[in-house]
Amino acid sequence: MAGGGDSFRALLRAANALLQQRRYHAALAVIKGFRNGAVYGAKIRAPHALVMTFLFKSGSLREKLKSIAQATYAHSRNLAYFVFTYKGLLAAQSRLQGKKIPFHSFLAACIGGWLVFGDNNPINSQIIMYLLSRILFGLSRLAVEKGYIPQPRQDPFPLVAALVWGTVLWLFEYHRETLQPSLQSSMTYLYEDSEVWHDLSDFLIYNKRTDSK
């Protein structure tokens, strides 16, 4: 038993020594990036899938749990693959040119995005829309910072909020098919289901009656 413990400690010391080697840093960063992508994807998707599935999806408990597991796995896998691809390509470009330049990041991410997130499915679509909204905010702030557009005299956020909500509700009311299914479900719950009730039970307690009254 003691021999086994000594072997494990020796292996642990060897692994820790390897992790400290600067020449392996780029390759190890790619591996840890894969790990972090998988963990982060699971942390983000699992609670979201849990809430959305039990709120809006029908079916048995087993079917719901399977749906949650599949969505969590897909998000976790895609993010892990993307980080692995991005960091690998970034390291390769830096090694080939002898230094890191801003275009390396853009090119590596474009290739990773094409390969990993190019499939048009609900998970990828939601991730891309999440990123797109933050890109638009980021580019707007960068444009002001670089002087491409003047600094607003007043905070433009109230106007942005008004336009976003005005546009999305107009699309929901008159061009619903253009919106993502999960957003359609959320808005149906908020703005249409609140128009229907039969008695106090489905007015305050439940959204919809489940009996045959």
TrEMBL record:
It comes from the Eukaryota. GO terms for cellular component: peroxisomal membrane. InterPro entries: Pmp4. It holds the Pfam family Tim17. Transmembrane segments: none annotated. This is PXMP4 protein. The lineage of its organism: Eukaryota, Metazoa, Chordata, Craniata, Vertebrata. The gene is Pxmp4.
